[in-house]
Amino acid sequence: PAATKEQVTEVRLAATGALLNTLDYVKENFDRGNERDFIMQTVCEAVSYPSPQIKQKALECLVRIVESYYMYLPAYITVLYNLVAEAMKASGEEEGVAMQAIEFWSTVGEEEISLAEDELAANEMNEPLPPERRSHHFVAQALPVLCPALLDCLMCQEEDMDDDTWNKSTAAGACLVVLAEAAPDTIIQNVLPFVQANIAQPSWRAREAATLAFGSIVEGPPADQLKMLVDQAVPLFVNALTNDPHVQVRDTTAWTLGRVCGISNAEFVIQKYFVALMEGFIKALTDSPPVARNAAWAIHNVAETYEHEASQQKGILSQCVEVVLRALVTASSREDANENNLRSSAYESLNTVIRCMSLDCMHYISQLVPVMLERLEMTIPAASSAIGEEAREEISELQGLLGGVLQTATQRLGGQGISVYADRLMQAYLGVLGIGSNIQQKAKDPSGSISVSGMTGSVHEEALMAVGALADAMEMQFVKYLPHFAPYLLLGLRNWEQYQVCAVAVGVVGDISRAVEKAIVPFGDDIVALLLTALQSSELDKSVKPPILSCFGDLALAIGGEFERYVPHVMAMLQQAAQSSLQLDIAPEDYDMQDWVFALRESIFEAYTGILQGLKHDNRQSLLQPHVSWMVSFCEIVFHDCDPQADGSSISGNSSVGLIPESEKLVGAAAGVLGDIATLIDGVRGQLVLLSWVSVLVDRAQNSVDNRVRDCGVWAKHAIFGAS
Predict the structure, then answer these.
(1) pLDDT in tens, 433-442
(2) What is the pTM of this model?
(3) How many Cα atoms occupy the beta-carbon half-sphere of 193 within 13 Å?
(4) What is the pLDDT, as a whole number, of residue 224?
(5) Cα–Cα 20 to 30 A to 140, which of 31, 275, 336, 657?
């Protein structure tokens, strides 16, 4: 018997799904024109099929094709324009088809943004851009037709949308954000008429859609196009924030104003409307949770705009700091603060205001610390008695937020301002770190990695960073806390599973080393052993390894000649890391890996500098004599990778690594190490003078456009060649 229509549809749906699952593995087929044409024809026919399920699955195929085979789209883009435009009209039960069509254009935009970044990176590195990585600017060409369709979708809001709502309206707004970055020069002219036509309409849907459209395009376009528009729009939005009768309009208005206050050239409009903006945001903090959440975020963006005033005696934030802090503290403790991320937004904004306020407002921070500290202290017994995963996570989040605020307050107040609270702060941080951790058993086990149970990684990060800030502020007065804190620090260094925690613990070792200097010696063996073990581990994320190498330099500077016992092991590890950085085969377009190699090499130079100068304090620098030859060779190899033209070749055979934009910093770091070797190790200076590449390296450093690199080059020139 002949198959029924339903059976045919089921088979087609299964076939389209199977095609979707294989698209990542058909590169060779896509490289052959006739096979590529067949695949694209099959997908396009599926998009036109009556079944909405097949249409949606076929559009998913197109999204995957954009991600993997963008370079082949020009031959098909005209057909795709029409197919996707038709699919965007779907509604009701077929809304998923429209959302997937919108996702197609979001993906095209994201791909073209990535291609533009690749082109910029290639230009900075003076490298040709591979033809397959060139943008065809489909978004810019499609905007005149695409924007009206997307803007119509914005009007399809649901009555009671929340943060988890994902429909045609929210998808279209997210797509506009991407398109504004992908086609910044023409997005305004395609969206502005819609905003002007709907911003004052009686329908709340029209007002909300117009507000969302404006907010979606403020990041991307050139400043000269935005300035007048933003100037005209802000008074309208400030009025809507407090007076519009519909909560979704007020919510989107707060979000849009937050976006406006976060653009790179926002200061001109914030300064002009500062009082009205801040009054509106403060009032909105008492509105429903989604509106209040976005108002807090907007205050965060305003404060960040004036971050440069933190070192000034008086700033624009001074006129409202007291009332803003009070409003944020109140909002953070609202009974409904756990809704719509209001609590976290309020605390993060509080943190930013503290960090950015001018010096005349320091007394407000002093008044805030005991309030935040009391809240943190109250969470510790609450965490111990919390029942259920959700309750524990909520307390953990609160502890992380409070720890972040107290860390920033400590950094702003310094030792003199924070010392009165130091004992209570440390007790609270230890209480947070101790929740769910069996320190006695775990800290003493030297083998393997661990993951702390019962506590989220973010809380450990915040608590560790807060302790680091306290150590930095208290300096030698921090010594009394070391025996109590050390077990938790060692636990953090072994937390490879939550590698961000491990990275923060490494940073705290540096903070404490600088603060207490040789008082850290009793804990040095355990710290160094854990750092060396972590470096050799394949389980630990590679991003943590450069900071670990730098940490050896911090430790050596702190303990001076006491570092002698670690020299053989640490110098061997540094040489191993340096050699590995020279042996990696890195693809020219793998910019992330190139950045990591840069960080690795820079951290090795930082370690060498710290160890050289640390041992010098106790006249133990001669211990490094056996390692001088390798250190000098590494400087030479890195220099020629940074500048292969220095002698016409790249010694490591991998010049792409050295051509990253930060290569000037590596040259400066190498010059610093050579200068240290020349001044600290007997008999080496005369040998360095005879090496022609040393002179070239030092000259390049002292002619750098980077002031710090240039200063390092001038110093190295004097140290090595005796020049003035």
Answers:
(1) 988 664 444 4
(2) 0.86
(3) 7
(4) 87
(5) 31
